[in-house]
Structures are given as C-alpha cells and as structure tokens.
C-alpha cells in the first residue's frame, strides 16, 4: 500500500466520516434535535412530504436523514415497461457510453468494469449519474420491474462527489465505496450502482443487514428477488450518488439533461419488451 493510498483511506475524510457517523446516531434529545433543526434551516429542507416533520419525532439524526415520505408524495409514473427515477436528485452526467467507459466530465471517465469488478453488464449503451444533495430524500427505490439477481459491495475511498471533482478526479466513482445491484428485466440485465462519498460510506439494503460498504464482495448471485417500480431497495446513511446503466438492447433513457432535477417515480425511459 502506497503512502498516497493510506492518506486516501485514512486521511481527514475518514475521520470526518467517523465523526459524522457518531453524531448521526446520538439519541440525546437536545443534541439530535439541535442538529436536525440546524440542518433543515441550513439546507432549506422541505419537510412537507415527510410523514414525521418535528425533530422530536426522530430517534436520531440518521433516522431523520433517511426519513420516509407520505405515500402520495411521490407517485409512480409509467408501467411495467417503464424506467423511473429511483431517487430524488439532480442529473450530474448522462449520455451514451461505449467500451465500458462512462464519461464524467470532458476528459475524465469511470470504467464500468472497475466500478463493478464484473463483466456482467453490456459494454455499450446509456447511463445517468444522479447526485443526491443533503436536502434530498435519501431512500433508493427500484427503477424498473425486475429481479435482483446479484449484488456486489466494494470498498474504496471517500472522495466528495461534488461537480468540480468530476473534472479533477479520473475514475471518481470506481474509487469510492459502492453497492452494485444487477437487475434482470425481460430483455437482459441492467445496473444500478449506489456510490458513497465523503461523510457517506454506509448503504443499508432491504435484503441484508450490512451497513458498511467498505469491503469487497463481488457480484454475489442469490435467489432472484422481484422488485416493482418504486419499491424501496436501500437507503443512504448520509448519502450520495446513484448510477443507472442501461446497455444497448435492454432499454432506453429519454429526455434527460445535465442539471435536471428528478423526483422519485418520474418516468425517464423504457425497457424493451
């Protein structure tokens, strides 16, 4: 291990993440209520769609951060052949990819094989990288009607995923901690990757009790688990970015633009029958 890799893994971002993780689980009322109120005020969080809206109703800051929404707050648009936005967020990058290469920003890229440590996903097609800001809803839902057929949890660094780093850090997403979900639809297999960042290195899923992604568990096949569009799959514990990858022949992403704001359930494409 090089000195640079040690600094990346155990440098300031590591200790910032550890400290924030500790604060996020504090149950002392005056501490966690103060944190929640200040967070809402600073980031101008809209609590209207949330089921619980008063800071005192949340057990911890993390409980607030992964707050659930009212069922009517995010209607699911489309049908069994639709691709919907799996999150609330902003489109950071989108477009075509080829040779397993996702463009981050002009001259920087993320390699699909390095991202997943797998050759399961087609080497060309379309993709969208959706950034979740601190004020966004941080649960992740299924973008399609599909079977979850494999998952990989891969450890890494904790680079911030702010837009300036898209241009500065080559392979940004393949360096960070991530959980990759392989989704089988009628026409083949697509990918949804949940990427952590600075402060963020935990992803809780519906199919296991692991919260840490700082390890390597490559494309573990298991009994296919069906998901409906909009069904909850995971949540970020202080959270980050979702990457959708739709290989050629699987389906198509439509009408996406960089900077576009998305809401969970919004139709963004279709699956080939």
Rg computed from alpha carbons, rounded to a whole number of angstroms: 18 Å
Largest sheet: 8 strands, antiparallel
N- to C-terminal separation? 47 Å
Helix content: 10-25%
Structure annotation, total helices: 7
Structural account:
- The chain folds into 2 domains: 3-65, no CATH class; 82-271.
- The chain contains 7 helices and 16 strands.
- The strands form 4 sheets. It has an 8-stranded antiparallel beta sheet with strand order 11-7-8-9-13-5-2-15, with no helix packed on it. A 3-stranded antiparallel beta sheet has the order 1-16-14, with no helix packed on it. It has a 3-stranded antiparallel beta sheet with strand order 6-12-10, with no helix packed on it.
- Helix 1 runs parallel beside helix 2.
- The chain has helices at 3-10, 12-24, 29-43, 61-65, 112-116, 163-168, 172-175, and strands at residues 82-84, 89-97, 101-105, 108-111, 125-131, 139-141, 146-154, 178-185, 188-195, 203-205, 216-227, 232-236, 241-247, 251-253, 261-262, 267-271.
- It is globular.
